[in-house]
Structure formats: structure tokens, C-alpha cells
Write a structure and sequence with these properties.
Among the domains are: 106 residues, Leucine-rich Repeat Variant (Alpha Horseshoe); 134 residues, no CATH class. Helices cover 64% and strands 7% of the residues. Strand 4 and strand 5 form a beta hairpin. Helix 12 runs parallel beside helix 14. It is elongated.
Length: 457
């Protein structure tokens, strides 16, 4: 494949325009399917944006956009050239360049430092000097924020952030610029301004009022701005983890958002919080239960269930690793706020991990117990005893009523004591030959057996 790609790159510089077009088309197909296969030739694609043939320029711009859909970091270096292509005299080149910029900048207007240098070079060539006025790079960026081209202004925000992270000049003015961007009618500018304020969160000047602005954008009409606000919350949390209790409810509230990608991003960050800050677990669970009871939205309920199941998995597994015995499936499900079916399936999957756990019906387990006694007479006695006990609502059973010719009183006492020791029944045999039932029969009912989880070495 490498040889094929190298040959295609050579084809991009062929004198025959037809061969160059074929090479560009073929590279486009490869890049759309797997961008990583052509990541090494991206610098060659950048050069091709200046090809004499408009069809080739348009094709390569489309290729860069397709790569940006899957691997935006691979093509961020092409931003300055794509901005230049927005001014191409051919409409198709302009449209494909805009498409590429949208895919590359969908997450943020971030620019790698090398791209910022190229971007500034581009701006300098476009800047018209008045009386040979000399302005700083920051002043140049500020002027660009006043321009009409949305995408130039959008990536100017990224360049401003990069500049301020390298220099202190203009921080006060930048705050005003970015707040103005949040008021723009263009959602890309609002998104970019929000992203920039959060990137500069560590600066004392910007800390005080950034979070209120982020909160106000969580319910913006534009989903792109809401996505940016969620990512801002994550950035703030990384820099000030003591705010976790304050920020967690904001993310949980987004489980109700109408956009699936916003709900999914909120879910991802909640899972990260649960794993990084274990003390939030109880609070997250209680808020999820409250949220579930207060919504009828199917998508929200499904996401809440998914979150609760994710949190429950390590707890259930830990239970089996530390202890042995019988666990009522329903009890585990209630404790962890999940369904019995989830617990059952999860336990079955655990059994594939060489953990000796399995789900059985209590009636099936009783059959195993009876078989282990190795005595048909005792088994018969137990069956009669259980039958009597299951329909009798009294708290004591006269053992004399259960004694038949086929077994002795000693046998019955021994069997009952064995069952008590095995925790199948709870009670005691008193001297007056009565069995006193203290708590409950089995862990459920003979007539309505429930599922149990068996864990033992």
C-alpha cells in the first residue's frame, strides 16, 4: 500500500493534468475509507491546493474535509491554506474548502502553534498598511476579529488563544473580544468564544465570570454551542477538581437534552467523574434516580439505566470476589438500582471470566441439595416436610405429624438440622418435638421460586 500511495503522490505532480486528476481522486477514496493510510502525504496534499487545475484543487480540499471527519488532528495544519482557498475564484473550490474547515474546526478553533505562524503570515499578506503603520501580531489578530469572513474570525480565536498562552500582551482586551464573540449571531463565533474563555481559565483575569457564561450556554439553541459548553465544563474540572460537586449536576441535567450526541458526551464525562472521584458515586446515583422518576423521555431513561448499570458492574463483581454463598438476584438488583435481567446477564458473563458464579432457580438448587443426601427415604421425607411447610401458615410444625413408617424421628431431625445448617430453612427443633419456624422458608417460596446467584470456590 505504501508503494501505491507513493506512486499516487508522484502522480499529483505529473505534467499530464488527467493523471493528476486520477491520482487526486484515488487518494480521496483511500483517505475517506482510512485517513491513517495517507497521513504521511498530507504535506503533499497541501501543496496540491495550489495546482493550476481547479478540479484538482477542489478534489484535494474535499479529501482534507473527509479526513477531518474522522481524524481532524491530522489536517489541522492545513487550516491556513484552506482559508486562502475560500477566496479561490472557482465556487467549487470555495465550497469544498469551507466543508474542510467545518470538519476540522468542528471540535474547536484550536490551531497547532506551527499553523498559527502560517496563519499570521497569511494575515500579514492580506493586511493593508496605512502610512506604513507597524502593528504587533496581537493587534493584527484583533483587526481580523472585526472582519466579515466567519471562518477567518473563527480560527483567529484559536490564534489569539495560542498567542496569549505565549505572551501576556492584550489579555484584558482579549477578554472583551471573546465576550463579544459570545454575543455574535453566528453560532461558530459563540462556540469559538466559549472555547477560548475556557482555554484561558487559568488566567486570574478570566476566572471569576467564565463559569456563569458556560452555564448559560448549556441550553443554547445551537447544539454546537452546547457541545462546546460541555467540553468547557470538563476543562474547568481538570483545572479545578474541587468544583466536581458543583459541576456534576450540570452534566446530569444534560441527559434530558434532545440531541443524542450531547447526551452521549454528558454520559462520557459523568463516567469519567465517577471513576476519577469515587466519593461522587452516591450523589450521582441519587440524582439519577430522581431524574428517572421525573422524566418520561425514553432516551433519557435508557441513558440513566446505562449509567447505573456501568456503576453497578464493579460492585457486583467485587461482591462475588470477596464473599461466597447464595445471593437473591432480586436483592442485588434492588440494591444497585438495576434490573434483574441485567444482573442475570452480567453474572453469566462473569462465569466466562473463570469466576465460579452462576444463576440458578432455587427449585433447581433444592434438587441438587436433595440429590446430595444420597437417600431416597430422606429425600421423600424432606419433600413431604417442605410440602407441608409451604402450605401451613403457622409458626410451628408438629414433627410427629411428619413421621411415617419409612423413616425415623432421628432421621427427620438429622435432615432438618442439615437443612438449617445449610441455611435452606431457618428455625430450630425443640424438645417437645416441634419445629419452630423463626423467619422464612428458604430465601423465597417453593411455589414461586426465585433466581439465585451461586458463588463458591
Amino acid at each position: 500500500m505504501k508503494n501505491d500511495v507513493d506512486e499516487l503522490v508522484s502522480g499529483l505532480s505529473d505534467e499530464d493534468v488527467g493523471k493528476r486528476r486520477i491520482s487526486a481522486q484515488t487518494i480521496g477514496k483511500i483517505g475517506k475509507e482510512d485517513p491513517l493510510k495517507i497521513k504521511e502525504i498530507i504535506p503533499d496534499l497541501i501543496k496540491t491546493l495550489n495546482d493550476d487545475d481547479s478540479y484538482i484543487r477542489a478534489t484535494i480540499a474535499k479529501v482534507l474535509g473527509d479526513i477531518g471527519l474522522k481524524e481532524p488532528n491530522l489536517v489541522k495544519i492545513t487550516v491556513s491554506e484552506l482559508i486562502t482557498s475560500l477566496k479561490d475564484k472557482y465556487v467549487e473550490v470555495q465550497e469544498n474548502a469551507l466543508y474542510a474547515l467545518e470538519t476540522i474546526g468542528a471540535q474547536s478553533p484550536y490551531l497547532p502553534h506551527l499553523a498559527v505562524d502560517k496563519f499570521l503570515d497569511l494575515l500579514r499578506t492580506q493586511y493593508v498598511h496605512e502610512d506604513e503603520e507597524v502593528i504587533s501580531d496581537f493587534q493584527l489578530l484583533v483587526k481580523q476579529m472585526e472582519g466579515e469572513d466567519t471562518w477567518t474570525r473563527y480560527f483567529t480565536i484559536g490564534a489569539i488563544v495560542d498567542y496569549l498562552q505565549q505572551n501576556d500582551e492584550g489579555l484584558n482586551k482579549a477578554q472583551k473580544l471573546l465576550k463579544n464573540a459570545l454575543k455574535s449571531n453566528d453560532f461558530w463565533m459563540r462556540k469559538g468564544g466559549l472555547w477560548a474563555l475556557c482555554q484561558l481559565w487559568s488566567s486570574d483575569i478570566l476566572e471569576e465570570d467564565t463559569l456563569p457564561m458556560v452555564k448559560s450556554r448549556l441550553h443554547e439553541e445551537s447544539p454546537e454551542v452546547r457541545l462546546s459548553a460541555i467540553n468547557c465544563i470538563n476543562m474547568i474540572l481538570q483545572k479545578q477538581n474541587e468544583r466536581v460537586d458543583e459541576l456534576t449536576p450540570l452534566l446530569l441535567d444534560l441527559f434530558k437534552d434532545k440531541e443524542n450526541r450531547i447526551r452521549e458526551l454528558a454520559y462520557t464525562h459523568i463516567i469519567d467523574i465517577y471513576e476519577d472521584y469515587p466519593h461522587t458515586e452516591k450523589d450521582i446515583i441519587s440524582k439519577l434516580i430522581k431524574l428517572k422518576s421525573g422524566t418520561k423521555q425514553k432516551e433519557t431513561i435508557n441513558l440513566i439505566v446505562r449509567t447505573l448499570e456501568y456503576i453497578a458492574k464493579p460492585k457486583i463483581k467485587e461482591l462475588f470476589l470477596k464473599k461466597q454463598g447464595r445471593y437473591p438476584l432480586s436483592k442485588i438488583a434492588r440494591k444497585h438500582k438495576v434490573s434483574e435481567n441485567f444482573v442475570k446477564e452480567f453474572v453469566q458473563n462473569l462465569s466466562l471470566e473463570d469466576l465460579n458464579v452462576r444463576v440458578v432457580n432455587e427449585k433447581e438448587l433444592l434438587e441438587e441439595f436433595l440429590t446430595s443426601l444420597n437417600s431416597k427415604e430422606e429425600e421423600k421425607a424432606i419433600r413431604k416436610f417442605l410440602k407441608k411447610l409451604s402450605r401451613d401458615q403457622k409458626h410451628q410444625i408438629d414433627l410427629n405429624e411428619l413421621i411415617a413408617n419409612v423413616f425415623s424421628e432421628e432421621q427427620l431431625k438429622r435432615v432438618i438440622n442439615k437443612m438449617i445448617a445449610s441455611q435452606w430453612i431457618k428455625g430450630e427443633i425443640q424438645e417437645e418435638k416441634k419445629y419452630i419456624r423463626k423467619y422464612m422458608f428458604f430465601v423465597g417460596s417453593v411455589t414461586k421460586p426465585r433466581d439465585l446467584i451461586i458463588a463458591k470456590k
